[in-house]
Every structure is written in C-alpha cells, then in structure tokens.
C-alpha cells in the first residue's frame, strides 16, 4: 500500500473516503485539469449559452454557474473537486463525447436534461465510478446505450427518456444494484427487456415506455418488490402478464397499455392492494373481468378499453369507491352496468366511456 493511500484511509470517513481515494487512484487530479476539461467542452459547444458566461479561464470552476464542488481530503491537503454539473434547460448544443470524463473522476451528479445534446452517450462515461445521478432526458442522444454503463456502480438515478437511443437495453444495467430509478421512456430501443433488470432490487421506479421493446415481460421483474411504478406501455411486448408480478405488492401504477399482451386479466392483480392506476388498454386481453379486482380499494383509474374482454361487469367493482376513471369501450362486454357501480360517487363522465 502506498503511503498516500494509507493516509487517505486513515483520515477519511464514508463519502469523502470514496472521493479522496479516487484522488489517489487518479494520481491526484487537480482542479486545474478539471477546469480544463470543462472549458474544452464549452469550446466545443455551438454558441455556449448565457448560463456558461461565468465559465472563464482565470476563475475557479467551483464559482461557475451549474458547477458544484466539494473539498476532499487528500493526504494532508483538502483540495476542491468538481462533483456536480447541473445545467438543465440551458440550450446547450453539443456532444457529451467532447467532455473528458477521465479528468472529472469526482462527479456524483450530472443533470443536463432538456438541452440539445446530440451524438452518442459515450462509453467513456463509465469511468465515473462515483456518479450517483445521471439525468439526460429530453435531448437528441442517438446510438446505443453503451454496455460499459454497467460500470457506474454508484448510480442511483438513470434518466434517459425522450432521446433517440437505439439498440438493445444492455443487460449490464443489471449490475447497477444501487439504482432506485431507471427511466428510458420514449426512445427507439428495441429487443427484449433484459431479465438482468430483475437484479435491481432497490428500484422504486422502472419506466421503459414508448419504444419498440418486444418479447415477454421477464419473470425476474417479480423480484423488484420495492417497485411503486412500472411503465412498459407503448411497446410491442406480448404474451401473458406473468404471475410473478403479483409479488410487487407496493405497486401503485402499472402501465402495460398499448402493447400486444394476450391472455386474461390475471387474478394475482388482486394482490396489489396499493394500486392507484391500472392501464391495460389497447392490448389483446381476453376473458372476463375478475371479480377479485373489487379488492383494489385504492384504485382510481381502471383503464381497460380496446381489448377483447368479454362477460359481464362484476358487481364487486362497486367496492372501488375511489374510482374516478373506468373505461371499457371496444371490448365484448355483455349485460348491463351493475347497479352497484351507481354508488361510485367519484366516477365522472365514464358512463359513455363504458
Ligand atoms: C468565488 O468568487 C468570489 C467572488 O465572487 C471570491 O471571493 C472567491 O474567492 C471565489 N472562490 C473561489 C474558490 O475561487
Ligand atoms: C449536487 O446536486 C445534488 C442534487 O441536486 C445535491 O443534492 C447535492 O447537494 C449537490 N452537491 C453539492 C456538492 O453541491
Ligand atoms: C483527459 O484528461 C486526462 C486527465 O486529466 C488526461 O490525461 C487526458 O490527456 C485528457 N484527454 C484528452 C483527450 O484531453
Ligand atoms: C455486468 O454484467 C454483465 C452481465 O450482465 C457481466 O458480464 C459484466 O462483467 C458485469 N460487469 C460490469 C462492470 O459491467
Ligand atoms: C408516450 O407516448 C404517448 C403518445 O405518443 C405520449 O402522449 C406520452 O406523453 C408518452 N409518454 C411517455 C412517458 O413516454
Ligand atoms: C428472481 O426471479 C427469478 C424468476 O422468478 C428467480 O429464478 C430468481 O431466483 C429470483 N431471484 C434473484 C435474486 O434473482
Ligand atoms: C401476493 O403477495 C405476497 C406477499 O405479500 C406474496 O408472498 C405472494 O406470492 C403473492 N401472490 C401472488 C399470487 O403473486
Ligand atoms: C364487494 O362487493 C361485493 C358485491 O357487491 C360484496 O359481496 C363483497 O362483500 C364486497 N367486499 C369485498 C371486500 O369484496
């Protein structure tokens, strides 16, 4: 063990330990080289936005708009390091590939959502092993999500929605077991939902809507027992809804609409008693409405239209006192609306929708 590393271990608790040891590992990268990397990136942008006018050669990057720093212990010194880049909605036009990530090893937060970032999400981003938040939604990113993203072992939030990413969702994402929120809505990713996603047992939010994902829902998603929100809508997913999802007892929102799911509305859904919103519309769902749905007493939206659901509406749905939206049109429902539903005071406008 080198003496500097020893000192570093002696003096630093917790997070500073992590960051400080990075300093050692990366040969004590100076604030100067971090500034250089940021200024180089600014120089590659097409007309740098106003927010970046404080990004100047002679000043500390820690004083720049959108940059935050932290002092970390490094041996006997306490150098400042750049930890945050936060410039959402800033009109930044440029490429992330021009940002020298190996010069910024202390980054914990990157939030550049709602800009004009184009080009690929570079594999070099994988050097940011302290990165905990990566928020890049509403940009113009293209290409694949790099396999190397599986090395961002500290990542808790990954938000890549509303870009133009293609290719498969890399199975290496399954290594990011600290993730609590994974959002890749509205892109052009295709192929299967990797079963490795089922290893992300800390996930609260999993949103993979509006792309061209296909195949079945992997059974492993039943291991994500902390999930509150699961969005898979707007894809080409097919097959039955796997009964393993009955283990997601904290689920509040389940959005499976606008896919090719077949088979009946599964009875296990009655297990998900925290459910507020259940979207199954625009699928190939058959069979009748299970009376067990009447036990989802927190339900306020039950959206089942455009399927091939048959049979009658079970009177048990009269127990759904919170229900304010219930749609069933374009199905093969027979019989009358049960009188029990007439007592649902919250149910607005959906009479015609039925
Ligand atoms: C940041 O700017 C202020 C003045 O605006 C200056 O006093 C301070 O020394 C600067 N800090 C660093 C770290 O450069
Ligand atoms: C970095 O940004 C996050 C999220 O906005 C914030 O919680 C954190 O305190 C910031 N870090 C520093 C060193 O300012
Ligand atoms: C990126 O930064 C590292 C560390 O400062 C440096 O060694 C390397 O030469 C830089 N790469 C480029 C392309 O500037
Ligand atoms: C991540 O997971 C893949 C398989 O899912 C594995 O092959 C790889 O070695 C893991 N490690 C990293 C750092 O990506
Ligand atoms: C998904 O697509 C629909 C229809 O184009 C759109 O209204 C919705 O905002 C999108 N939502 C997400 C989360 O991608
Ligand atoms: C997750 O789910 C699958 C299938 O349901 C199961 O085989 C596996 O053992 C589960 N546990 C873990 C930790 O992946
Ligand atoms: C219902 O939830 C419990 C946990 O509360 C779980 O043990 C059980 O397997 C679930 N049943 C189904 C059918 O998924
Ligand atoms: C729900 O409604 C049905 C018929 O309206 C009733 O028999 C039943 O006891 C109610 N309660 C539950 C928890 O399903």
UniProtKB/TrEMBL annotation:
Q: What InterPro entries has UniProt attached to this entry?
A: Leu-rich_rpt (IPR001611), Leu-rich_rpt_typical-subtyp (IPR003591), LRR_dom_sf (IPR032675), LRR_N_plant-typ (IPR013210), LRR_R13L4/SHOC2-like (IPR055414), StomDev_PlantInt_Reg (IPR052941)
Q: Which SUPFAM superfamilies match?
A: L domain-like
Q: What membrane topology is given? A: Single-pass membrane protein
Q: What is its main location?
A: membrane
Domain (Disease resistance R13L4/SHOC-2-like LRR): residue spans on this chain: 141-232
This chain belongs to which protein, by name?
Leucine-rich repeat-containing N-terminal plant-type domain-containing protein
Q: Does the UniProt entry include the keyword Repeat?
A: yes
Q: Where is the signal peptide?
A: 1-23
Which parts pass through the membrane? none
- Answer yes or no on keyword Repeat: yes
User: What GO MF terms are annotated?
Assistant: transmembrane receptor protein serine/threonine kinase activity
Q: What PANTHER family does the entry give?
A: OS01G0149700 PROTEIN, OS01G0162200 PROTEIN
The listed locations are: Membrane
Domain of life per record: Eukaryota
The residues covered by the Leucine-rich repeat-containing N-terminal plant-type domain are: 33-69
- One cellular component GO annotation, for this chain's record? plasma membrane
Question: Could you mention a single GO BP entry for this protein?
Answer: response to other organism
The entry's keywords = Glycoprotein, Leucine-rich repeat, Membrane, Repeat, Signal, Transmembrane, Transmembrane helix
A Pfam cross-reference name = LRR_14
